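User: Predict the structure for this protein chain, please.
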Amino acid sequence: MCDAYGIVNFESANVHVKGMGEYRPVSAFSYLGRYRLVDFPLSNMSNSGIDQVKVLVKSNPRSLVEHLGNGRQYNLNSKRGRLQIIPAISSEGVDVNNTDICAMLLEAMPQEYVIIAPPNMVYRQDLDQLLQQHQASGADISVLYQNVDNAKSAYLNCDVLRLNRQKGVLSIDRNRG
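Assistant: Here is the predicted structure, written as structure tokens:
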């Protein structure tokens, strides 16, 4: 059982899909006609034993709320589980509080750990195993990532982590292309 609180964050400002993005959040985009992108992080969390999850949504939440319902399809509406959908609060002009976590309205959580997942990535991950590796490392923060060889051409306007296994993150650069 994964002793962590789950947060499915809203997509970053650099994720923009012309046309569809004006009517629904990226997390509510259809995948293979049956699923939505938000299904992947929610399934990863539910299958890893996380039963307290908040889903943050930046704008146009109707389609996402309709799809998620009460969380029954993810086994998050049990006596101890809960799925919450939280619209982001705009804090434009207030740089110090303009963060993703600020939009979440933190409350006292019995879990010691928080797992934050993006809503626009398709992957399968045992988050309980990731949490165990994090605890064993003694690190303050762990990042799940995938090495790629074509980052400079395929991932423009994205943050790039320069990693060193012994020292951790060396720098974070913006890939301008």
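The helical segments are 39-47, 62-68, 127-137, 151-154.
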